[in-house]
Amino acid sequence: MKKLQCAQIWGGIEEGDATIASPGLTATLFSSSGEGEKGGDIYYVSLCNSTYITRIAIADVVGHGEIVSEMSQSLYDSLGRHVDDLNGDEVLSDLNKDAITKGITAITTGIVATYYREDKTFSYVYAGHPPMLLNRNNDIEWTEMEIDIEQSSNMSNIPLAVDEDANYVQQSVTLNSGDRILLYTDGLLETISKTKEAFGMERLQTCLKINRDRVLDELRDDVINALRDHTEGKLEHDDVTMILLEIR
Question: How many domains does the chain have?
Fold first, then answer.
């Protein structure tokens, strides 16, 4: 298990699996590329200078290669500028403007989540990304963490690199020890079987419920094994990334 140090950012676009710990939470990651060692999914975890703020980000870039590398660097830079900031909406707004200024045309969805361990507040903001799933202290149910979009003259919470004036709305919940949260890219749900059937939310929920008593990294592996069983082999249709969090 890797332990983050103050002011440290960890992440990338490479395939892999790892478990990361910061004061207050543990994050376990799996990322697979449909085309090789590097793909269109981006993942990051950072810890602020005071060690009170842990930030988790995940993004899905349409495309591969140079475009992905450039978006990855932009995300890294934005996180670095805001590593001590509780406002994840500012991170997404900054990244969105950077992407448009640089002429990046790849549609990118993402999540920026911020955990403040002093009062166990978990804040999150979406950019056109599938909502996270929340499990309260080993309850049976995993619920979607949706955001109530405020009325605005600008488009709200849309994918990055679409509108320079897009508005990103952040929402917060209070968590308790034992609560778990799942972040994922759409490749997880869209994994196709040989009969062209998507893995889908129902199968994901069933897997999470059946294996809810498992430790964090084992639950991560259970989901990935269920995906591989569904495809009867490798994950080659698309990039698949998931980050499973547990509050300590």
Answer: 1
